[in-house]
User: Fold these one by one.
Assistant:
Number 1:
Amino acid sequence: MKNEVVEKKLRIKVGENILSTSIERMNAEFKKLVAENEGSVSQIELDLEGVETIDSQGLNLLIGLYQECKRKQWGFRVVECSETVKWLFTIFKLNDVFGVERVGN
Amino acid sequence: MVDNELIGIFIQESKEHLEAIEPEILAMESASHDSEGVNTIFRGVHSIKGSSGFFGFEQISKLSHVMENLMALVRDGQLSPNSEMVSVLLASTDKLKLMIDDPQHCAEVAIEDEVKQLNTFLPAAKGGTKPAQDKGEPAPKQVKLPDSLKRFRLDPYILKNAMQHGHLVFVIRLFMNKDVKEKGRTPYDYFKEIESLGEFVDAYFDFSSISGLDDALSTDLVCSFLFTTVMGSPDMITSVFDIPAAQVEEIEAGVIKEWLGTNPGVQTPEGREAEVFLEVVEDDSGPASDAGHEPDKAEDEDHLASTDHLAVKASSAPAARMKVKRADETIRVNVSLLDSLMNLAGEMVLSRNQLIRIAENHGQEIAGLQSIIQNINLVTSDMHEKVMQTRLQALGIIFGKFTRIIRDLAMKLGKEIILDIEGEDVELDKSIVEALSDPLTHLIRNCADHGIETPEERERMGKPREGRVRLTAKHVGGQVLIEIIDDGRGMNPEKLRQKAIEKGVLKPEEAAKMSDRQALTIIFLPGFSTAEKVSDVSGRGVGMDVVRTNIEGLGGFVDIDSEVGVGTRISLRLPLTLAIIPAMIVGSCGRRFAVPQVNLEEVVRLGGKNKPEIIRGSRVLRLRDSLLTLINLADVLELTPQEGERGGASDWEDGYVLVLNLDNNQYGLIVSELLDSEEIAVKPLSVYLKQVGCYSGVTIMGDGKVAMIVDIQGIATMARLKFAENEINEQSALDLANQLRSSDSESLLLFRNEGLELFAINLSTVARIERIKASDIEHIGKGEYLKLGGRSLRLVRMHDHMPIAKPEQTPEDLYVLVPKLLTKPIGIVATQIVDTVQTVVDLDRETISGVGILGSTFINDALVLLVDIYSLFESVDPEVFRPVAYPEHFKNLRVLLVDNNVFFRTVEGDFLRRLFGEVVGVRNAAQAWEKLSEENFHVVISDVELPGTSGFDLCAKVRHSERYKHLPFIGLSARQDPNHEVLAKETLMDAYQMKFDKVKLLRLIESIFDRKTPRLTQS
């Protein structure tokens, strides 16, 4: 999971499918990143490039991260969704919540 | 997919709103505006704002929002509308239209100007976009919604749609872990499976069950869906979703309908978490919410098709000012469905026709068959008519926009124009209405641009400052007549002719032949535009020829009428529908063809009196007052009759002439048989046949055989028909006769004197033809006289002097032929002018002879008597016309008479033979020269206009020869020409004078022989 901070924006590139098998690890990484950047960032941008599948637990994790940001009054948005992920967000009406951007090429 | 369909509906509905509000905005400018109109605008922009916001089309939402604010103030009386405001509102409406056409890319449309201008009207000019409290919006009656619904965003579009289709609405609660994950499925697979069964209207997660990353994984997330589906019971839902019944709640349709009744806009959820993200990302590639709606290509096409909806009956004409009746209940039906219904109905009509034809033969054999067939016949016709009606749309749909166009043009051009619209409730087939939009727009623009003058100009001409344009539509017969009438400057046929010649569109002689009415149709010629300068309003070159092509493509006609200074009227006649047309089924050479009856004026059977004649190489039929050019269908299509078939050349004698109307012209199409008049279903031509050009379609007949539908314009084009040539009037025939004088053929005027005898007189002996009434004739003594040009003209009835049939009664309408250049002319009375023909006369002097008869000949197989006016006049008035004293010595003289015209050679020859010993007639200068070298003559009398070597050249040759230089030479001419007199002097002719006047000729000859001693050339 790569990340960088640009102008108070923490950009996290997930880089793999968000599945229950790896969900614990990812949760821990998110927690670590949030803790590390406490006070220095005001927004998280989650880059889902390369993510093809998100399972039920994956949704839990994303909503957890969203709620985490909200509690800290950080901005949160999701970028670079694949078609399937985008479709899923549409069904769950999560597009607006996650401020989903257009898919890049 | 769901969203694309939704967007399709959004587009359609928004367009309807815009159509409705535009006339209201225009009305705000006039004194007649009312609060209902303002409310219509308000409601329109309000709904657009609501739904565009729902889809995330922010630019649309933003602009409509500002418009809404402005309209709220107008509605509450805080602002009064003015023309400036109207202009800005109209401009904003245009921008909305532009964006709604392609909402996915609405962000690319710049709306800053409009927003800024709209804001200047708002009291809080800075920003001004504070949301208008929906004060006047009829306060939505609160409908008690079940608690389970409260957190959903209710979309009236989807719900209305669902209700109309009888779908059920469910609220479904789904545990993501228990119901999805533990059953071994990913959310993606799970929902993909269910998606096909219904539509997810909205969904929300119970976010509160997760507070952050710490408890993110331990919670079983609950997602609630509002789902509309075709599935008929909660049981089915539970089995499909694989969830307990307790998690499914059915929402009663009554609740939804009641809610829909009071909530036209989107209902925003109560108590739903305001999910705000801190930064709204301005994405220049499109609105953020676009992501979920990005259509793939196939879907995009689907979506386009789905926008092509047409509300059945008049509800598709929402323009509020239109007095179009709204049906109480309408449903949306896809146009493609209507199209296939239409096709099926067409097939059904064909099958019915086939059935009827078969039943004709077997009707007696099966009891009761006849009545069943009759019933099917009626029901089918009725059904076909009804199906057609579903496709009818009111013209109001396109008429509505012209108010706007005229207003814009008037402002732009600095003119004052009032547009009156009538008949916007007249209905036409959808395809025709659509295709009419462009041509009508062009015509309306033309009226405003070229037709109506500037206010100053109008005042100078004593007209009211305001120009009027009337656009009317009405049913006339089975057609719809649309007229565009302006009271502007009108069109000048002379200018049109000149311009057409300048532009090389017409040749001068073609232009000269056109009547004024025909000259007006010059504007329909390709490449012709009357605008002095090409403006950006009209005159862009596509012009009127495209208008005409379009209208004719729809099976219609364009007609034009104009008077300089008074105005112009353009009439369009259109069929109600294109798919089924009444047609005349005709046969030629054993084949069958369908001729559309719209074009058919009448049918004439050839034979008897109706005999085609040949004029200038074309066959024509004399039909009442005009000549009808004839085309033989078999000739154009190069058909030859097989053994036992009628058709081809024999049709000229006993075929049928279909008199067809083409613009203002007519022509006659000759066919062998008339078979039936039938309603035919038009099938488009295969691409392979389209290029042929003489068919417009094809149809299947009652007996299952195929018949081609004849394209009457195409046939005319193929036959190279030139209508200008139809207009042969007497004057041009005379000119023509003169032009053709140098050939051996002669121009004859054919006429009748009641009775069947056909008479001919050489056209060049006729000065004029007068049309008179029998009552115009004055009787003095035994003689009849006609007052003509201040002088009395003696009249002669041919049957009083000639051995011909006497009429039993004289008709009231008569003609008088006035001969040329006689010292004392006498008019010949005729009852009918039949024709003028150009023909080589083979004169038979033996068979029929008598006073006034030169001889007989056959013209187009009809026996014709050639009239000798000299002997006729001699018989009428011997005093004047028979010279009494012939100098005796003339009896010893030989005369050489040179004239290529049989008629004259005969007449003059007859006359001269009474004076001279011998008269030898020859046809041309070469023969004359030959005779002169072989024999001796005392005088040469020659026509000056001979084919080949002229009479003047002959004379010059005679003068130059040693042998003949003193031979008396008299030149005769059929027409007065100053050049002739000069030439006559130059070539040293002894005399030169007009033909026809025998008295004068006689005196001339006498004077010549008094002056010179008559002598033989060689003596």
Number 2:
Amino acid sequence: MRLDWFPLWLSLEVATAATLISLALGLWIAWLLANRDFAGKSAVDVISTLPLALPPTVLGYYLLVVIGRSSWIGRVWEAVAGSPLVFTWRAAVIASTLHAIPLLIKSSRAALESVDIACERAARSLGASEWRLFWRVSLPLARRPIAAATVLAFARSLGDFGATLMIAGDIPGRTQTAAIAIYDAVESGNTMTARVLVIVISILTASIVLLANRLEKRRCGY
Amino acid sequence: MLRVTIGKTFPAGPESAAFKLEIEFEAAPGVTVLYGPSGSGKTLTLDSIAGFVAPDSGRILLNDRILFDSGARVHLPPRDRQCGYVFQNYALFPHMTVRANLAFAANRLPRLERHRRIAELLDRFRIADLAGRFPHELSGGQKQRASIARSLIASPDALLLDEPANGLDASLRSDLHSLIREIRQSLAIPILLVTHNPEECFALADQVLVYDAGTILRRAAPLELLRNPGTHDVARLLGGFNIYEAEVIALNPGRQTSRVRVLNTEIDGPHLRGCFLGDQVALCARPEELRIATSPGANRIRADLSHALDRAQCIRADFGDELVADTSRSEWLALKEAGERDGWWVEIPAANLRQISRALRNARK
């Protein structure tokens, strides 16, 4: 029989997009949490950790409420784009992002907080703006743990099942990611497909974790 | 000119006692040494001036620029303060070469000016051949110079040094001192230097601020401090002083002298302010002002030698009981034999005894 590789490619694409979005958004939130005192800081801290602790289906349900067809965001999207946001690959990206971002925020925050405060103060007193401080000093000094966290976040978004299923559905050839395809294949007795996908995903994830570990270990380069 | 009047209170935390900083001083161009024990608020003062910490109250003025004013709610961010800061651990950016470290600081200069300025400072601080190296490839003294060069790139209005000699050995320390003197000569800006090393304090300072527990006990020129510490606490913090509890036996205001009982011996003393007969008063004298003798005489106190230390400049003889005297090596050799045979006396010249406390009235009665 011919194996359908589409779910795997979709998973990789979705995970890549989700990782990039989590990286940009997560770094920004991590920087705020590490460097600023603002009202609602602990709320941001709690909310950004929640996806790590909540059951994925609960997360999916919230997403349906927030970006579903009857929601405010959902209706605006539909008016602008001409088609619903839910049950598309875009919805899968949103679900994966939410799944991956807590890890990035937590690790990046710890990494940014571990940067020598004297270096940051030096940069500030030498006339650097916060933007320049971040790009030229803090990020380069924290880059290894952040890179390791990004790689792990990729692995995590690759593996999302529950939230993706609820918000993007299980439409073969459109929104069926690898994780969901495996479930489907097992349900329908298609053991061969399930096995191949499981092996491919396992190897992929193992190499990602290996890469993350190596990135983490070489951090004391200076 | 730097004018600082600030207050800041830290409430007691689970692992720290409450702390209150309440200081006021002016610093003209030249070296102002912030001297005092750890935890007395010296670094906190620097951090407030640099803008890393916001005081609760007060004002900080640098050349009539307002850096901080609690009344007007002004708190300039560090990047707009034009204060060069040299950190205790140098704080060079570890991922940049020496040249890149300097270039980072030169970012605000016009492009043409930038290279000239970097080259000039690399040269002046003798780190031109190290420009391509990373901080972890430098020795302590080289890091130190690179860090000072970096802080001066943007021509700051003040230079703040937080214990710059920490962790340097004696020869690097003296290199650093001549470097700081050089900077003082060439730049007419206030240089604030935090230290708890009295030798560094006296080697570099134009003015000394003696810190203790969040306040400035005394602000004076270093020689003035040595000549007259003024209070018991200052003498104790500066260290090296022999401090005596004296009882006033006789007063002669007309001739500006007195008689006091020190270490159970009656000797001539200086003019004492605000004292009556029978009062207790604290006096002090420096080791180099005491004279070692081997026979009794005026103002000499019988003593037993505890030990003698070979120091770089002199012999320091310790007779216990706050009788520590310095003498030259040759003189010591001449005295030693007679002293061991006939016994020791230490002479405290009346002119060198300074009053460092108010009279404690009738403390013994």
